[in-house]
Amino acid sequence: MAGxxxxxxxxxIPEAELSWRFSRSSGPGGQGVNTADSRVELSWDLAxxxxxxxxLKARALNRLAGRLVDGVLTVAASEHRAxxxxxxxxxxxxxxxxxxxxxxxxxxxxxxxPTKGSVExxxxxxxxxxxxxxxxxxxxx
Length: 141
Hints:
Layout: E1 5-8, E2 11-13, E3 18-23, E4 39-45, H1 54-63, E5 72-77, H2 83-102, H3 116-136
Antiparallel strand pairs: 1-2, 3-4, 4-5
GO molecular function: peptidyl-tRNA hydrolase activity
InterPro entries: Pep_chain_release_fac_I, Pep_chain_release_fac_I_sf
Protein name: Alternative ribosome rescue aminoacyl-tRNA hydrolase ArfB
């Protein structure tokens, strides 16, 4: 649990930059649900962090703009009864979010012309369909 949060090889978030909050969780838990603080909120101040290089940080800020509150990214986990498992789930979720946010943009698609065969198949299918509909009409001679 202690130590850095490894997002991907070469990208790590120091434990000192992560802040944890614990509260009571709703849902199953029996008699201990009202006494155990099993819900976990993991926050990371992306705007002031030095864990990411400037280019990756700018990309992450841009992509996560809708999730950030004053530059802080927060992830909550309350699906497990044990606080430790919720801590692990929150770390996994935060790492996945950051990994997705700093991923390079996909290669731009280069538009290509349809092949001659596909154009011919499309036109013949349209003609077939047209003939089917034409044969449904009554003769007006």
